[in-house]
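Exam revision sheet. Question 4 asks you to relate a sequence to its structure. Input first:
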Amino acid sequence: MDSNKITAAVVTVSDKGAIGQRVDESGPAAGELLKEIDCQVLHYEIVPDERHIIKQRLIELSEKVDLIITSGGTGLAPRDVTPEATLDIIDREIPGIGEYMRAEGMRFTKRSMLSRGVAGVRGKTLIINLPGSPKAVKENLRVVLDVIAHAVEKIKGSTVDCARDDNHS
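Answer key, structure tokens:
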């Protein structure tokens, strides 16, 4: 493995997916998009919408990878607890990521404002919550894809200045 390559885990949060009653298309969609930034997905799994299980997996995976993408559990249903589990275990929140995904999502559907996904840092790992549908995963991840590498560099301790590059937004 290239030591400069970002390593990632993708965790789909779905009760039905965890017991095999639904084929997960969201996790694989996230994994495909991550290839665009030369990210190596080392781990993929489906877990049920259980706060303690989500927390445990995020903690364990944060010791192994640079980036964790979750898919699902960000809505308003009573069992949607991914943001709470994430907030329980992160050291620092990155509100701009969730804000930007919701704002950009409004171009596609006003329901985007109902997504509660968060992003943050645990140790040296970036964690980003995405909605559960494959379409929403693609739309949301695409808008933050170009900042992931820079965020991971900074989290790992890069001292390179964050000056704006006028060639990129």
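Marking note for examiners. The first strand starts at residue 7 and ends at 13.
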